Amino acid sequence: MINSKNFMRKGDAISKAVGSSHMKFVRMKNETQQGYLAIHKMRQNYVKARTACIYVTRGLLSEFIYHANRGRAHVYKLKSEALAQDSQIPGSLKEAISVLKALLEQLDENIKKLEILINQHGSAKVVPR
């Protein structure tokens, strides 16, 4: 696809950027740095998954007149109330919420483990460039 118009434009743009005095070059990351970036990305994805589970739980419980304010603490408290024996939630939904509760606990545990790794890296000696 060398004859493509876009290929030619990209080549021109790259050659102009490299020749420019304003071009800033950065070093390539070594394997250790890439590993730490991967840990941060994993934590970020776990946090997204936890947030999604919280929103699903809030939505399911709001259909049965269990309303929670925003925030993890409110939803965790509401789940305990909903899973109580005297709640008016059907048994099948209680089982589904208990599955969500177990998933949230697992996500919280994984996030804490990754935060420990991140904090250990942050306290390590930083080598100046």
Q: What can you tell me about this protein's structure?
A:
The chain has 129 residues and is mainly α. Helix content is 71%, strand content 0%. It is elongated and about 75 Å long.
How many individual domains?
Answer: 1
In one word, what is the shape?
Answer: elongated
For this structure, the quaternary state is: single chain
Number of separate helices: 4
**Rg measurement, Å:** 24 Å
Helix residue percentage:
over 70%
Number of DSSP strand runs: 0
Average pLDDT, all residues: 80
Unreliable spans are none
Coiled coil: 97-124
Keywords: Coiled coil
Summarize the entry for a quick read:
The chain is mainly α and 129 residues long. It has helices at 5-19, 31-62, 72-82, 91-123. The two termini are 40 Å apart.
List descriptors.
129 residues; mainly alpha; 4 helices
Strand and helix layout:
Blueprint: H1 5-19, H2 31-62, H3 72-82, H4 91-123
Keywords: Coiled coil
Coiled coil: 97-124
